[in-house]
Amino acid sequence: MADVVLFHHIQGLTPGVHALAARWRAVGHTVHTPDLYGGRTFSSIEDGAAYSNGVDHPDLAALADEAVAALPAGLVYAGISSGVMQAQRLAQTRPGAAGAVLLESCLPISGEWAIGPWPDGVPVQVHGMDADEFFAGEGDLDAARELVASTGDGELFVYEGDRHLFEDSSLPSYDAAATDLLTERVLALLSRL
Could you read off the pLDDT of 25-35 as tens digits, one per residue? Predict the structure, then answer.
């Protein structure tokens, strides 16, 4: 069974993020869900962005590093949207990553926002919707294509639709059918790690 750390999206550690983690746990995986917002959740992407980018914003990288410090090296790093920044950074820089699951976001592996090349031997999945204004419209889909092409064990799954945070069952953007398929694909990856 895999040991996973799942970083929440910009609206915080919502009931829908807990529900997604519970689906992965239901088949025996260990899923850690650190709360980088200290219990705060937000009703909109805009409100979450105002908090995470505001004057007194949390140091998300430091909080993520602290959250994984006592966990074993062989983690699968997963993140939803803005949580991908921490998941992908750790998968690429913390030794011993077992894999990565990047939901609705992807950082480039070359150019301005790049952390560097994808590590050898670390499988990765990227999931997002084809008409999502953030994933498809802000370059993440292109970054995902570049990432997957650079590794021998990468998969990109693009779903039809324009919803962002579609796997969060506590939000109006939830898409049950897409989330079922996403879960099936993520569990297939986790089962082989």
Answer: 999 999 999 99
pTM, full prediction: 0.97
Which CATH number is associated with domain 3-191? 3.40.50.1820
pLDDT digits (tens, 9 = 90+) for 40-81: 999 999 999 999 988 888 899 999 999 999 999 899 999 999
> What residue spans define the domains of the chain?
3-191
Question: What one-character-per-residue DSSP string does the chain give?
Answer: --EEEEE-BTTBS-HHHHHHHHHHHTTT-EEE---TTTT-B-SSHHHHHHHHHSTT---HHHHHHHHHTTS-S-PEEEEEGGGHHHHHHHHHHSTT--EEEEES----SSSTT---SPPTT--EEEEEETT-TTTTTSSHHHHHHHHHHHSTTEEEEEESS--SSTT-TTSTT--HHHHHHHHHHHHHHHHT-
